[in-house]
Amino acid sequence: MLVLVSAGTEEDDVVVTRHENAITAAERDGVRHIVYTSLTDAGDHLGFALAHRWTERRLRSGTAQWTILRNGLYAELIGQLLAPREGVVSAPFGQGGVAAVARDNLAEAAAIIAWNPEKHQGKTYNLVGNTVITAQDLADTVGAEYRPGKLSTLRPALDSAPLLPFQSPMLLSIHSAARHGFLEETGTDITDILGREPVHPLHICRRRDRLTSREYGSHRVPNVPYLSSSLESKRPLIRSPRRDQCSPDIAAAASASRCSQTLISSSWCLMVSSPPKSPENFR
């Protein structure tokens, strides 16, 4: 049994090639079941959806049994995108919301599926949260003011930030999809798999802003300069912006991108040749 975690830290052609190599190798070596961490049903409007949907199609046409986990957007990432600056949340989310979900809940769901994959053969789960949170909700929770910015202002800030070329449209697509209500669909699949309610995303969003980090102006940027990949050696993913190189808005963009890249794991696979430990041990 193979758990394939999406390799979302490159352009689509590179990601698709990695996934094809992993699936082909699994089929060649007799892997009976592949569990893939994909993207929420509502994610078709996002700039990083293509490789996920390609991989789903490849699994459905392959020889191994499969289960697809369409993960919702991480609450940790949303917390970074909505981080207040000088007491103001200015992300251009408008009045739209996100059915965000905590990474720990998604990891536990994957462990439960891996514990008994036959029960979930041929199924696709939409693992979004059961609660929609808005930028206003987060601002109220942390005692900040919400003054939504504009996408037209965010785009040049992202374009001038120390990001890889594909990261700017990826982040912009999240803001745009949220602003226009495309990420508000809730679901019960995560609750059904866990056997309990998922963690409220606002709790995760608040915790994300308290992580140990370096400060650039009034923004706190996590120390995540490198990502590990099983297919290539470690390399700098995003240059660390110096205080005199960028405005707080751009530093926030770099921070959010680092968060997203940390949460969207570089290419790695978990091979399980015998039943894993009980799911309780993954909590």
- According to CATH, the fold-level topology is Rossmann fold
Q: CATH first level: which class?
A: Alpha Beta
β-strand amount? 15-25%
Q: Largest beta sheet, briefly?
A: 5 strands, mixed
Low-confidence segments: 211-269, 271-277
Mean pLDDT reading: 79
**Widest β-sheet, arrangement of strands:** 6-3-2-1-13
> Topology as H/E string?
EHEHEHEEHEEHEHHHHEEEEHE
Structurally, the number of domains stands at 1
Individual helix count: 10
Give the name of the CATH architecture. 3-Layer(aba) Sandwich
Cα separation of the termini: 20 Å
Overall shape: globular
- Helix percentage range: 25-40%
Instruction: Give the total of beta strands.
Output: 13
CATH homologous superfamily designation: NAD(P)-binding Rossmann-like Domain
- Content-based structural category: alpha/beta
Rg (C-alpha, Å): 19 Å
